[in-house]
Amino acid sequence: MVSEGDILWECPEDRLAETNIVKYLGWLAERGRRFDGYWDLWQWSVDDPSAFWQSLWDYFEILHDGEIDAVMTADPMPRTRWFTGTRLNYAEHVLRHETTGDPSRAMLHHSSECRTAATMSWAEVGSAVRRLATSLRDRGIGPGDRVVAYMPNIPETVIAMLATTAIGATWSSAAPEFGAQTVIDRFAQIEPKLVFAVDGYRYGGKDYDRSADLATILAALPGVETLVTVPYLNESSTECFARETIAWEALLNRPEIAPDAFAYERVASDHPLWILFSSGTTGLPKPITHGHHGIVLEHYKSAAFHFELQRNGALFFYSTTGWMVWNTLMWGPLMDGRAVLYDGHPAHPDATLLWRIAADTRATVMGVSPTYIQMVRQQGIVPGRDVDLSALQSVMLVGSPSTPETFAWAYEAIGPDIWASSQSGGTEFCSGILAGSPLLPTRAGEIQAPGLGTAARAYSEEGTPVTDEVGELVLEKPMPSMPLFLWGDDNFARYTDSYFDTYPGIWRHGDRVRFNAHGGGFVLGRSDATLNRFGVRIGSAEIYRTIETFPEIADSLIVCVEEDSGGYYMPLFVKMAEARALTDDLKTEIARRLRADRSPRHVPDEIVEAPDIPATLTGKKMEVPVRKLLLGAAPETVASRDATKNPEALDWFAAFAAKRAS
């Protein structure tokens, strides 16, 4: 039986000697800066952020024009700017290794339910990016113009993103499973000039035509001058729309352009790179705008030191283009390695699929969610036994909190030599806040440490740092990849209200977190979904940790609402596994286990079977909308149906709330 904090793995000395972070420490030592392990290095990185980020600029040999005026301006968050006086380009860094090795080596591995597995070489990707970028320039697309994509996780989307950012235009994307209104809510805020789009997609063996949705989207975006169509569901599709429509292949149909004959648009440190969006379950999603400088530096740091991506390694994350994780897939090429793309259902026809892709592509770092691992466990799959994962070095558990049992399963079922790491970040940074390092032991259920250069703390309600207590996750100092601004928020009013309303001058991230004495961290769920049980705050993740041990239960959701009488109502909703029933005996055992594993305050008032658990398009449980329904809010106000992965599940909860209120 594993317990929270048990040490499950420590990096062997021979492997540790070859890690990126040890090589970086050696490089620093040669320059007179010596540090005794991770915590000493981390302390310097937050005490002297200018020196730390300058060291990364030098270590990774950032390609740039101009001279540095200020590594970090004196402006307080959120107005801090980095490496002012210089100009650089994100895409140039991703593709810089095309000519440093054999250009025919693989850069992208890709597969989907519509296409068989294949690879694209560095030369093929680089050539396509240069030709597409030049065609975009010929069509009048330039620095600052917004280019958007209604595209899945396929090579064309990567190429379009790199071509767009290579010329200084600003990128944004939405996954084709997003409904029309969800896409309009995002793209209408940023007024794109050009749209890339597929005709449809396939998921779980079922085809979804998106032509009607695309027509609706375009009708709501009057500033779009050009639609670039990418046949995908129907490779022979030639459908045209009201405005100028051009085929993908037509833009690439031009002579080759040599790497040294193409000029990247190097831009200033306040120039927008891409726009990511918050989940948008209620209200308009926030248009989070990042810059080239911050993303290049943060992505080098995270790829090298927190994911330990090695040269020639391969990064495989299951992600759609509507999640910030998709933007981090280029960490592989950034480190002179490879990226693995997959579009489709992660468990079709069964949950061995992602592991087979990892084996076939010789992935070295794989990112999966604890929810997916729960599915794998329920199907009795043992990845280390069932497929060849001999190339796999690390498994990143991301997307939601990971239990000690999930960590233990990773070492038992994947392999005892892997580095299993839970990390937590956010769309706001397009990276991690709490991260991992092979310099530290892996402890069951813990995130190893705050990331380098990340002054993360837990704050009490009074605004003081706390240890071994649950508090609000905050950042006391700026990071380069913090948003430049929210698009259209010229006076920073929405930005300030979103992140600096609780602790003036301190970034409040919106997560409940606990740090222990040795530095390990535990994200306990979103602050607005905290279970306030008779004045005692409980993280929903603590409930889910116990519920996940029941094979009878496929998924669950718990909320707590305050009643008019002054009391509390805390129901636990469960989706049963196939052919399993919610019996009185099972309810009794759930209550007994929660009382024993947690406390009497963790025992729900009611255990209710639900046909499904509502989730956002990126797979997060919709605790806040369900809580609002139970508090009496109208269904149309709690969440956008188009921002919900399974809106029919939310309908069931709306009916449940209405019945309870009657």
UniProtKB/TrEMBL annotation:
The keyword Ligase applies. Coiled coil: none annotated. PROSITE patterns: AMP_BINDING. Residues 110-478 form the AMP-dependent synthetase/ligase domain. It comes from the Bacteria. Its EC number is 6.2.1.16. Residues 38-93 form the Acetyl-coenzyme A synthetase N-terminal domain. Keywords: ATP-binding, Ligase, Nucleotide-binding. This is Acetoacetate--CoA ligase.
